[in-house]
Amino acid sequence: MDTEERKRVEAFLQEFKKLEKVLIGMANLKEDFVSFSRALNYIYYHKLSAEIANTNTYEFLKTASDVRNILAHEDNPIVPTEEFLKEFTDTAEEVMNPISCYEACTKVIRFVTPTTKVFSAIKIMEDEGLSHLPILVPNKKVEGVFSRSVFFDYLSEHKKVDVDDSFEIRDFLDVCRIGNHHNEEFLFVPRDLSVKKAFDQLMKKKNPHQKNVALLLVTEKGKEDEALLGVLTMADLAKISSSNN
Residue 238: in which H helix or E strand, if any? Predict the structure, then answer.
């Protein structure tokens, strides 16, 4: 084993030890001895961590545990590759210090209501450089999203757009509702979902024909009938995700 390989082994074992301590504390099992694997399994099956609840993360950490056991007990140990070490370090950081969507989201929300005048909404967007405004009802439930593409969608469906000072957001509500936008999608996410999972699982398009995800709407449990707690744009997620890599 050369110097670089030894450094990777030491770095892996140090990071593993830190993660092991966190997992044992998270599992909080009243047993004389709790191993990494015992704590990991307990956390996974009891859904004590949003990160470890992900099957891919759980399986990867099981593999990391096997690697650690080989390094601890075999005369000719394996050596973690740079790629494996980076993935393990990133995963451990997500588990130990996850950034939740609620922590990262914009909580001072600029919004409109169904009775907001359309030109007032447009002025807010122009003055503040916004492309989307959630439409909220009194209980802060999201009724829809007013966006720059609304007029195009309305024209596509009604064949004409004739707007004056009397028009209100509710006059365009049929194309503003969640799911009714032609080219954009708005997803509800729970407040405790990690930013990385939101970016990896929700924001990546599965095929080129899917709508572009424009906004994440953060609520307590990720339900549409809950009060809006904050919003996250794709740019927000990409910036936070890249800064943690």
Answer: helix 234-243
